[in-house]
Amino acid sequence: MKVIFMGTPEFAVPSLKAVVSANHEVAAVITNRDEPQGRGLKIFPPAIKTAAVALGLPVIQVSNVKDSGFIAELKGLSPDVMVVVAFRILPPEVFSIARLGTFNLHASLLPKYRGAAPITWAIINGEQETGVTTFFLDEKVDTGKVILQKSIQIGEDETAGELSVRLSALGGEAVVETLERIQTGSLRLMKQDDSVSTKAPKISKEDCLIDWSKPARAVHNFIRGFSPEPGAYTFFGSKLVKIFRSSVFLPAKVDRQNTYPGTVNNSSGTLLVSCGEGWVEILELQLEGKKKLLAPDFLRGIRMVDGTQFKQTRG
């Protein structure tokens, strides 16, 4: 089939490669413009553009998906199907162009975790299972009829970054299988049940502040849900500290007398922090303006006596 592929981040790359490997004709890869990134604000291409160029595929970079010239260009390509993986919200005049429809790959088992950050929120909420869903686009975001779903288990210490890698590979399989079903006419569409839907909204910096008064398991889930990006954070004196890896400390053989949430204990040689219930062990962290370090290396460079507190404000 003649396919137009739309995507931007690294998550979309395995799906593009899978489509090419399945011998579908990729008429164009649509992605965002090159953008400045990092401290130096150097201009970098989207990951999907880099992959498409390496595969010898034509790339169209767009700022406004409602632009009439862009829409005319898509129509001129006469695609059978359009595949969307981590791109943007598309208007009907775009997703209705393909002869056999436009479908999206979403990193959750819809209708759970509709929205921009399904992997993060699934981990924060302590889900043990997630997966990917392909569905035909509709006017309301993430609500279209489901084509297929594939599920996987979430490891109890798995970070969002690690889970994203596994889901992106699973997504490639789902995209190819979806194209096969469309091509052979073997679709069995399932309407989503809106009454059991949950939301996975876009992440803001404020969302990433650690609340140490929550139980240790919830704090641990919170930390791994924001790892490696944008990073869950707390404050040590006037400095912001990002925490990337942790574990629930069991058994909690630590004296909790007069211990407030956020209190540090490193008498055992490990970096433990008191929570509302129990303790978490911090394994990897980064002090503002410094490199990311494993906890033992961090403690060699930063004086952090027992009773020190991580707090929710500077100072």
Describe the model.
It is built from eight helices and 15 strands. With 315 residues, the protein is α/β, with parallel strands linked by helices. Helix 1 runs parallel beside helix 6 (160-184) and helix 5 (118-124) packs antiparallel against helix 7 (216-225). The mean pLDDT is 94.
Q: What's the total helix number?
A: 8
Radius of gyration, whole Å? 22 Å
**Given this structure, which CATH class of the largest domain is correct?**
Alpha Beta
CATH topology of the largest domain: Rossmann fold
Share of residues in strands: 25-35%
Order of helices and strands: EHEEEHEHEHEHEEHHEEEEEEH
CATH architecture label of the largest domain: 3-Layer(aba) Sandwich
List how many beta strands DSSP finds.
Answer: 15
Structure class: alpha/beta
SSE topology sketch:
Blueprint: E1 2-7, H1 13-21, E2 25-31, E3 35-37, E4 42-44, H2 47-54, E5 59-61, H3 68-77, E6 81-85, H4 92-95, E7 102-106, H5 118-124, E8 129-136, E9 146-153, H6 160-184, H7 216-225, E10 232-236, E11 239-248, E12 264-265, E13 271-274, E14 279-287, E15 292-294, H8 295-301
Parallel strand pairs: 1-2, 1-6, 2-5, 6-7
Antiparallel strand pairs: 3-4, 7-8, 8-9, 10-11, 11-14, 12-13, 13-14, 14-15
Helix pairs in contact: 1-6, 5-7
Offer a few descriptive terms.
alpha/beta; Methionyl-tRNA Fmet Formyltransferase, Chain A, domain 2; 315 residues; 2 domains; 6-stranded antiparallel β-sheet; elongated
